[in-house]
Design a protein that fits this description.
Blueprint: H1 2-25, H2 31-48, H3 52-80, H4 87-131, H5 144-164, H6 168-185
Helix pairs in contact: 1-2, 2-3, 2-4, 3-4, 4-5, 5-6
């Protein structure tokens, strides 16, 4: 992934340099499309690596550039009095919109996972608290040690999810709670 990320960043730098030269000459090239494509690719790579905030920034950059490309293609078609030749540009815009939507969906899934894990943690705490009185007549569910391990596992899962959501302080607190519980349960 790092090599792919570096390759796309190099392509992006090259395209930006080409665009700067075009601006000096007053000409235009496909550099804007290359920059937009590279930004999209960097967004995809960042999303794949779980760097959702970074992915969102790249997708936003790609969307802004692709929208400008679509507007320019439509304006050129209007000037020529013909049918719009922007279908390819619209297709590229649609691909980035779909990727951005998938990113939002993934982030929502992590948020949902966090809610479920937090709820499961509360249930595990309640059950463990009830059973600390060592009432042997309770159902044949997991042993107290298994419940305690579940609490630690859930805290770690919550912390992992918080990391993905870039909530670093909350993740650190959850990891600390997991460690504290692990030590106190032993």
């Amino acid at each position: 992934m790092e090599a792919s990320h570096a390759w796309h960043e190099a392509a992006l730098r090259g395209a930006l340099d080409a665009m700067a030269e075009d601006d000096d000459d007053g000409g235009t090239t496909g550099s804007e499309a290359i920059v937009a494509g590279s930004a999209h690719a960097l967004g995809a790579i960042s999303a794949r690596c779980g760097e959702y905030d970074e992915a969102r920034r790249w997708y936003d950059e790609a969307l802004a550039r692709k929208r400008r490309i679509v507007e320019a293609a439509e304006a050129a078609a209007d000037d020529e009095g013909g049918a719009s030749s922007s279908s390819s540009a619209r297709h590229e815009l649609g691909k980035t919109l779909n990727a951005a939507a998938a990113l939002e969906e993934a982030m929502d899934a992590y948020r949902s996972a966090l809610e479920v894990a937090t709820s499961a943690l509360a249930c595990s705490y309640d059950r463990a608290a009830r059973e600390t009185g060592v009432d042997e007549s309770l159902d044949n569910g997991p042993s107290l040690d298994e419940q305690r391990n579940t609490i630690v596992d859930l805290l770690v899962k919550i912390a992992d999810t918080l990391l993905v959501l870039a909530r670093f302080d909350d993740a650190a607190a959850a990891y600390e709670q997991a460690l504290i519980r692990h030590i106190s349960f032993r």
